[in-house]
Amino acid sequence: MLPENSTTDKPLNCFQRPRRLRQTATLRRMVRETILSVDDLIYPMFVTEGEEQKVEIASMPGCYRYSLDLLLKEIAEVSRLGINAIALFPVIPENKKDDTGKESYNLEGLVQQTVKAIKQAIPEIVVITDVALDPFTTHGHDGLVDENGTILNDPTVEVLVKMALSQAAAGADFVAPSDMMDGRVGAIRQALDAEGYINVGILAYSAKYASAYYGPFRDALDSTPKFGDKKTYQMDPANAREALKEIELDIAEGADMVMVKPALAYLDIICQVKETTNLPVAAYNVSGEYAMIKAAAQMGWIDEKQVILETLTSMKRAGADLILTYFAKEVALMLL
């Protein structure tokens, strides 16, 4: 219904009409600035001991802890969907945890045996292994702890180096230190090179924030800290310049790719990091971000598919070259 004084033969004096490029789906695709592709996705996956085990994570609907036999089948499926890389996270039983995290560098440990099996069965998939002690320690912190509850930096780095070397020996393509200890990237790079693993890359969790979005992930690994928090080593969510400092240090120490974690509440950080480096920038669409979308979708409050695509597109638009996301398999099916 036109307003009373309106006329169709006297158009507004508009030389620019951006809506012309939005008229059809074909036009919108032609001028789209940001394209989300399955090649952008890294799929985080959880491995546990045993056989024929596929246990859904209550706080992460659609995500599972897999025993190795079923994990291999799932990886074969995601590889067929075009997903090129997985990030591996272990669920370690309590009887193999201690205060030192020594199971983390056991050459016959869960991670090491899993990597060997994956590379034998599906050699083309890129395997990224986590380097941090929280899944392996009784206290749930990413580093060694002294009698006063202080997280020890340099002794922790020594253990992380052993861990990274054991993962490289198993066949990992990238090791991904997520612990946020100072100097660990340089120490790992030097050790890898000294042992002949010059082609094993480092995906550094460079700007990893002390975020409240990690809760479901800690449920998945049973790695919630038994005391205190992680604010003395993970970053203050209020800081942006500090992220650029951390990125600069990790690049100088030999990182091949850098990461911002979490992603959704830190799109500004992703953008700033992308403007300061030519290295690939990864963003981690973390468990809390995943769980919120799943919960809202289950309540019927959102269009799940469209919100997933919009959320991941926002991360790529901000500057992420790669996105670690629990939605990877779903998105790959959407993009077929």
Automatic annotation (TrEMBL):
Assembly: Homooctamer.
GO biological process, alphabetically ordered: heme biosynthetic process
UniProt keyword Ribosomal protein, yes or no: no
Gene (UniProt): hemB
GO MF annotations in UniProt: porphobilinogen synthase activity; zinc ion binding
Functional pathway: Porphyrin-containing compound metabolism; protoporphyrin-IX biosynthesis; coproporphyrinogen-III from 5-aminolevulinate: step 1/4
Binding site for Mg(2+): E246
Similarity-based family: Belongs to the ALAD family.
Name recorded for this polypeptide: Delta-aminolevulinic acid dehydratase
Database matches in SMART domains: ALAD
Species: Aetokthonos hydrillicola Thurmond2011
PANTHER family with a match to the protein in the record: DELTA-AMINOLEVULINIC ACID DEHYDRATASE
Catalytic activity: 2 5-aminolevulinate = porphobilinogen + 2 H2O + H(+)
GO cellular component assignments: cytosol
Record's function text: Catalyzes an early step in the biosynthesis of tetrapyrroles. Binds two molecules of 5-aminolevulinate per subunit, each at a distinct site, and catalyzes their condensation to form porphobilinogen.
